[in-house]
Amino acid sequence: MSHVLDSILETVGETPMVALHNVVKGSKHKFFAKIEYFNPGGSIKDRVAVKIIEEAEKRGELKPGGTIVEATSGNTGVGLALAAAVKGYKCIIVMPQKMSEEKRALLRAYGAQVVITPMVDPDHPMSHYNVSKRIVAEIPGGFLANQFFNPDNVAQHYQTTGPEVWKQMDGKIDMLVAGAGTGGTLSGCAQYLKEHKPSVKVVCADPVGSILYDLYYHKKIVDPPGSYKVEGIGEDMLPGNVHLEKYDGFVRVNDQEAFDMTRRLVAEEGLLVGPSSATALVGAIKFSEKFETPLNIVVVFADSGRQYLSKAFNDQWMVENGLLKEEQIKDSFNRVI
Ligand code: PMP
Predict the structure, then answer these.
(1) Has the ipTM of the complex gone over 0.90?
(2) What is the whole-number distance in angstroms between the Cα of residue 319 and the centre of ligand 1?
(3) What residues have CB less than 8 Å from 246, skipping those under 6 apart?
(4) Ligand 1 atom at minimum distance from 48 CA
(5) What whole-number distance in Å separates Cα of residue 190 and Cα of residue 194?
(6) Ligand 1 pocket check: which of 36, 37, 73, 231 to mutate, most ligand atoms within 8 Å of Cβ?
(7) Which pLDDT tens digit goes with each residue over 229-255?
(8) 194 carries an active-site annotation
(9) Of 28, 30, 45, 103, which one is the catalytic site residue?
(10) Which sequence ranges form a coiled-coil region, renumbered to this chain (predicted)?
(11) Which of 47, 93, 109, 149 could cross-link 240 (Cys pair, CB 3.0–4.6 Å)?
(12) Neighbour order of strands in the sheet with 67-71
């Protein structure tokens, strides 16, 4: 049975690269999207979850019967819970209140215990960072995945995402754009791509309200951290895996731009992706405008739109959050016949 995989974990990675057409009409550049929702848990974070667990097993930090604990906006949690299910570990996920109901439900479906924390500063004792640290200290056999600082996160993108992009593009890549949550995607891809072609530009698309843009251009926080609706990217602290010195630029994208593009991507390209993917594309379009010669630009689409059906794809939620006007609601969308 040479075509049978040993477990679902072997389907992580090797995601497709797809050319974009309608949403980038008018640009002189070519845009290609790495579609990470093809991973079994539905996001790019499956790669990182599997790597962090396997390296912890090798180092003896995670032993049979152990409990994996993590602070996450959801996607890493799904990856960890998926791997924990296959490998027989318990899993506790600590998640800020803002994250979508679908993500909580998904984690519970995978068998994880979900702890929801209030929206407070990262230093606050009730922040998802600090609550996860407290939980792991209290549980015998507890292991904190620590995706924001664990170098295995960056290493996985250096060893898989970066090489896949390089191979799929036959080396004909001029720029890569992605958002940064932990920074793992950008830091690992930057390292790999620049080793093969130093002129490749690696750019971070940052939500308005994140402090990373200021830290990159001003070395300090100019605009205080603000709230925004896009999930999974942008930060109110500097994660150890955000390696600013490896990036070539930052571009800011607001919620309106991100949610408009989220809807366009499915309507015009058939790509049901989340708002962080749309942020990356809007950022790529904006940042590339200043380049005269046509470029090949790869944009990382981190997760699926399925976990935002109650938000980006819900007209009522869009109206309540000021992202859609009442008169823009499409009749067919919500009408019960
Ligand atoms: N988009 C989404 C939806 C995510 O959940 C994440 C991870 N937080 C990212 C993008 C960013 O990935 P990274 O952690 O590698 O910076």
Answers:
(1) yes
(2) 26
(3) 186, 187, 190, 191, 194, 202
(4) 15
(5) 6
(6) 73
(7) 999 999 999 999 999 999 999 999 999
(8) no
(9) 45
(10) none
(11) 149
(12) 113-117, 90-96, 67-71, 142-144
